[in-house]
Amino acid sequence: MLRYLTAGESHGELLMGIIEGMPSGLLIRVTDIDRDLARRQTGYGRGGRMKIEKDTVKIFTGVRWGRTLGSPIGLMVRNKDWENWRDKMSPDPMFLNSADPVTRPRPGHADLPGVLKYGMADIRNILERSSARETAMRVAVGAVAKRLLEEFSIDVISHVLSIGGVFSKVPHVSPQEIKRRAETSELRCSDPDAEKRMMRKIDEMKAAGDTLGGVFELIITGVPIGLGSHAHWDRKLDARLASVIMSIQAIKGVEIGAGFGVANRPGSLVHDEILWSRKAGFHRKTNMAGGIEGGMSNGENIVLRAAMKPIPTLMKPLRSVDIVSRKPFKASVERSDVCAVPAAGVVAEAVAAFEIASAMIEKFGGDSIDEMKRNYEGYLKHLRFRTGVEEEPGKK
């Protein structure tokens, strides 16, 4: 069973992560993790925090000489802004009351439901953990999962489809070409013309003290047939992917394949016809299902999209009510981004990669990466026989 935990606050000393269940012998490169951490921090429309932090990871446990041991992997990312918050965020009670309590909840944040749920009088106790700063560690964890997927030629790609009502035209090219274009774009958009219009929109909203959301797409290539299960609700691959994407801060909707579009089409234009050839075996010319049928991967690319709401911290604040005085006020302003849709796509890559890696380990098992690969190759050989691409030895 593959699982992870993260810990840490936005202005605390550090973020921590523990990964359990990763097989032994997997090569882990710190540079790979740091590259994804840097990708999360880039993007047109990001705020001042990205200029303060330059995230890098340190591996403390579970890896020796670059390879996993099969024991829990401990990761750490330091918060450089901690120097300005040592007393205010210290776990030591001697610094009690070194900062005034935050009593003004911001609309769209976890502030108000959090303090009411946990019986707090200081909103900072909620906003520090609910902050999207936490996703830095999820990206680090996901980068480790990506290394496992790389051993099986599985890739997870994100690119931006729209920002603030400006839509890109996705070119009819391979996922690898979409990835190449996204990686050279400030907004991770494969359409240069749309990117320019998105940038102008971001500039307009920044001048107006407002924020923008948008939609990004994930494409997961190389996934074998049969991950997930039709038998139990909590093992369905589409449900698992939707759950982890929805867990990302500010994500308000997820669709897989044609998604909400299927509601307005007849069945004849929704379902992917099944074809067969000696070279390809069973396959489909269309992928309306987004690579998942009956809760299981069907061998096509897994495609999903997520909608991110505009960031709720505005330079032109909305109305709220103080939790102590009950008096109305204009919500407080914290340092924030104008748009973080490209970064959300990178976070989505991480959590989706971890979920696919978890499903791979469930399916193929093995205490070491070599054992897992042997099980995987045996399964692919079995599929080649079952799909008629190869004949079983001894059969004519």
Structural summary, described in words:
The chain is of the alpha+beta class and 396 residues long. It has a single domain, classed as Chorismate synthase, AroC fold. Helices cover 31% and strands 19% of the residues. It has helices at 30-41, 49-52, 111-118, 124-130, 135-150, 175-183, 192-207, 237-246, 341-364, 369-386, and strands at residues 3-7, 14-20, 57-61, 63-64, 67-68, 73-78, 155-163, 166-167, 214-221, 251-256, 275-277, 281-283, 292-293, 296-297, 302-308, 319-321, 328-330. The protein has a 5-stranded antiparallel sheet. A hairpin with a 6-residue loop joins strand 16 (319-321) and strand 17. The chain is globular and about 80 Å long. The model has no long low-confidence stretch (mean pLDDT 94).
Give the overall shape, derived from the CA principal axes.
globular
CATH topology description:
Chorismate synthase, AroC fold
State the major sheet: 5 strands, antiparallel
Intertermini distance: 41 Å
Radius of gyration: 23 Å
Number of domains: 1
* Helix content bin: 25-40%
CATH architecture: 4-Layer Sandwich
Physical arrangement of strands within the biggest beta sheet: 8-7-9-15-10
Question: What's the CATH class, please?
Answer: Alpha Beta
Give the low-pLDDT segments.
none
Task: Kindly report the name of the CATH homologous superfamily.
Answer: Chorismate synthase AroC
Mean pLDDT: 94
Reading the helices and strands in chain order gives EEHHEEEEHHHEEHHEHEEEEEEEEHH
Number of helices: 10
Given the helix and strand composition, which structural class is it? alpha+beta
Give the strand tally.
17
